[in-house]
Amino acid sequence: MTADSHARRPADPAARDLFEEMSRWPIFDPHSHIDPHRPAARDLDEVLGYHYYTELAHSSGMPAEAVAPGLAPRARAENLARHLGAIDNTVQHSWLIEIARTFHGFEPDRIGPDTIGGLYDAALREGAREGEAWDRRVWERSNLEAVFLTNEFDDPLEGWDTTRYVPCLRTDDLVLKLHQPGTIGRLKKATGVDVGDAASLREAVVKLFERFVSRGARACAISLPPDFAPRKAAFKRAVTPVRRAVQGLDLRPDEHAEVRATVFWMLAECCAEFRLPFDLMIGPIRNVYPAGVAGGRDLFDRRVSLHEYRELFNHFAGVTFPVSTLSPDAGAELVAYSWIFPNVLPMGHWWYSNVPAFIAADLKARLQAVPKVKLLGYYSDAYKLEFILPKFNMYRRILAETLAEEGIVGRGWSPERALEVAKVVLVDNPRRVFAPRGPGEPSAI
Amino acid sequence: MTADSHARRPADPAARDLFEEMSRWPIFDPHSHIDPHRPAARDLDEVLGYHYYTELAHSSGMPAEAVAPGLAPRARAENLARHLGAIDNTVQHSWLIEIARTFHGFEPDRIGPDTIGGLYDAALREGAREGEAWDRRVWERSNLEAVFLTNEFDDPLEGWDTTRYVPCLRTDDLVLKLHQPGTIGRLKKATGVDVGDAASLREAVVKLFERFVSRGARACAISLPPDFAPRKAAFKRAVTPVRRAVQGLDLRPDEHAEVRATVFWMLAECCAEFRLPFDLMIGPIRNVYPAGVAGGRDLFDRRVSLHEYRELFNHFAGVTFPVSTLSPDAGAELVAYSWIFPNVLPMGHWWYSNVPAFIAADLKARLQAVPKVKLLGYYSDAYKLEFILPKFNMYRRILAETLAEEGIVGRGWSPERALEVAKVVLVDNPRRVFAPRGPGEPSAI
Amino acid sequence: MTADSHARRPADPAARDLFEEMSRWPIFDPHSHIDPHRPAARDLDEVLGYHYYTELAHSSGMPAEAVAPGLAPRARAENLARHLGAIDNTVQHSWLIEIARTFHGFEPDRIGPDTIGGLYDAALREGAREGEAWDRRVWERSNLEAVFLTNEFDDPLEGWDTTRYVPCLRTDDLVLKLHQPGTIGRLKKATGVDVGDAASLREAVVKLFERFVSRGARACAISLPPDFAPRKAAFKRAVTPVRRAVQGLDLRPDEHAEVRATVFWMLAECCAEFRLPFDLMIGPIRNVYPAGVAGGRDLFDRRVSLHEYRELFNHFAGVTFPVSTLSPDAGAELVAYSWIFPNVLPMGHWWYSNVPAFIAADLKARLQAVPKVKLLGYYSDAYKLEFILPKFNMYRRILAETLAEEGIVGRGWSPERALEVAKVVLVDNPRRVFAPRGPGEPSAI
Fold it and tell me: How far is it, in rounded angstroms, from Cα A155 to Cα A135?
């Protein structure tokens, strides 16, 4: 029995065969929010607490207080279950059913007030009682090979197997919140550098990269708002704004822009020096809906263009940029930029774009117009291990259907040739692009 | 024989079964331009005069004078019929054929100079001779339950059954044309308030809401240009611009913007107070092509974002906003905003987006990512009753095909579960969201 | 045996029948970059040197030097062939295979280091040895009727059959580079006019049109960056900037904008006067990736709108504007503008939008919402004759599949009616819209 036995299979026979074969491959997941100290869920509340469920339930009428942190986990789960009926059409709900079936022997096709109790108990029996053994069981069952983490710059990076749970340096705070209380203090503490100006800031950043790379980090990552436009740092011009920022002084908008641009450029320079891919996640605006549930407050402005990144892509020809865009309608532009720039790679289908209708349209265009060696299939963005399998299965289904339709039927490919492309996209490229490399080694592309 | 007997059925058997069942349901149409005093067409000119036909025919070479208001109705119809061959590929032409077949016993699959005469006579026999009986026949045959109107603020709202033809307060003139000659006069006359400043303007607007709600209105609606950005009213700042506007003085651009924002915010406050959903129809720019036929002069600028509406959505958490966007490529953003904001509901597929290719892509994403209790299926936007059935049938076909493919095949739903979703989308949600509510009652979501 | 015998046929039987019939029709190609003195490839390097291959190979890791102009043609072809494996998923690669099979008897389904030698020899035997006879063979085999060229304004337009290779006046240099060294000199030389100010510039432009029309030109064309917005020329305001430009002086940004707008408006006036369609190709930004291979350096900013063109479309009601947009997500807006403006016609699917996934989505909407008499199917944009057939076959497949699904299955059309639409789109409309017309004759629409 393969790992995916509770996943829906494609209806089309050719696609189903491709899917079955993909189901036997290990999963390489180049972006997640997994906590390596506690990767799988200890109870069902940790599954249902995923922001997709709380925000969709809230959006359909559940008060945010129904899932407040102060409540008992079981109460939160029961509260949420009362609203699952309102969202049982969504693809996110289908992940939940696949988790319940695959990992907890659940049989119904919906979860509601009448079934939540039994499911909660089952999950608790397994997750809480087994603890680390449960982490291993989910890992094995999902056939995971590597799961990339999201590590704050001051994460000690200790206490886990970094070949499985691969560190990734997340840099939003450094770029976007350098001037906010705490950031500089954390940076000093993490690096031992007495950061006081642009030069010592750079010194601290280099120390971060040294530490991350020495502990197995294989990517640097950042999410950037739609109005951010990278530009070549002008260190002279940045001297004063950076000093004011590290001193925690209030910044004028133009000073803040200067600081953001300067720190971002420093990070790109370090990615070049340390041979790390720099994951760009373009689009989110934080806290657009402040009254939302945790994790469900961010949105975007669709008026964004990769043209703003031209200087970056040109200047850092040696840095690989796996790019995710948030607005679903921005996907076609990413196809064009990946087609032209050697160092721009389309990565996964992110957040509001991680919906089958958007993935399918996007993926077809990528397969038709971007060199196959540049396609970085998918990542889970998951907070708990259990989500990786159903999310990847969703993607594998779409990939199987697209390759069957576009490759086998449309271009007369053999199933083997279609699988060859699938393997490249799902396994070979992520392994190669995110492989550890020494200082002399060239980047993947 | 069901109402839709002359509609095309989907080819896929599962989709066809869903469609057949939907065809037995009543139609709840939450937005139209029907004249309740004369809802069905009295002659074929009133059908062919729909701007879709005149603008498409004009776009393919017909001079605007060929359908000038001064011509005899039969002459206009004959002139237009000579150009129908040029547009017989369009989905709008397919509505026309379905009307001719369903309501007038027409059999050919195209209408041209040779067949227009007989069809004109048949329609005249029924529409003009039967008069109100014809209105009732079209109503029954289409199995209509409720048809929302578009009522100017000074509409007397008298002389029809408002449970069938439901009033809806259209507010474009108040927001966008307050300063134009006539608007204030009409407002004074409609409310009896001597509008002279912001305070008395507010008083008048409240009176409008009172009158509309007392006469059965169940929504307030407005269409807004792409450059409009709602913002919290600053009544102090608005005092002078509003006074200048109500006095009919020329406004500077910044004053006009202040007036628009202020009046719009007042309307939203009244929607909160009177528990009315506020339909936002975002995107049109009026009179982009002034030489066009009536109703065929407006277009849009696709660079628009719902991010401009964040303050409105946050501030009026208690107001339900059914949102339509005009630019087809803006649909994906609406999915995301509906997914996060409890009070944002995706409504219908409007005007330039009301094309099967765009509806299908949009609908699939909505069904995958927006809670089903928030999906407000479709509205006809029709000017004559005859159009409601073919337009809803077009949507029902797409909904049936999407649910068959995405739900039954893709996720293993039973046909009953697929129909459950269809019912929610087409009937239950519109009934609930647009239900009359008392001042104490919460909004639908 | 029909011309397309090596093209993939659609799998669906109804679509296959439509495709087979279309394959018997002549190809009318209203935009290409063919050199009429040397239309077909003399060797395989001229095929593999197409920027699609060099840029995709470069994007997947091939150094630009591997295809440097200084290398021997065979060496370039061999270098490139080593990278074809990285891009053999792309639709561009499928054109290459169809060329190799149709024109050179190649049988494998991929081209690599092991097969490049034999293929190179075969192509050389035919192309180089046969010379003009090979041009004729490719022309016949592809069943070409007319191929439009891209002629610089100072092209002598001599030495070929202009009813086959139809001249088209390309005007990018005049509008965008008037002030650059050389442009004015070329213009003086081409027209004999001593250009010194706006009036003599206009005189020279009129002379260009006279010459082009007298030598059989049937279109004027220009590609415009996303930030270009046509506006009614104000010749008074333009006097000084134009004089500075023709004198080769440095221009301020506002002066350059004035010059661009003025010259563009002159061209539109000449199109009106000389009854030439004015092809607008909207979107490219040149040299976004300067380190790229030749032809592979341009990209776009997706934030572009046809709303910027409203004044042009209104003012020149008598000029036909076949419009192509570069950003794939801009296609839906073009549908709406073509639906309203009689003189706006959607033309082909261009460059980064010329990908089946984008074409299929776009084409379906065009067929549903734009009068069929306005649909200008496709153009090859090719540099060598061999590419016209596989590119048109790609489009014919999508057109056949769309008409089978949308027309035959979706609307109950007979195959004959579907073919009628296909014929209009592929052959009749281009012939009519680009027909030569005398000064008194009205434009096509």
Answer: 21
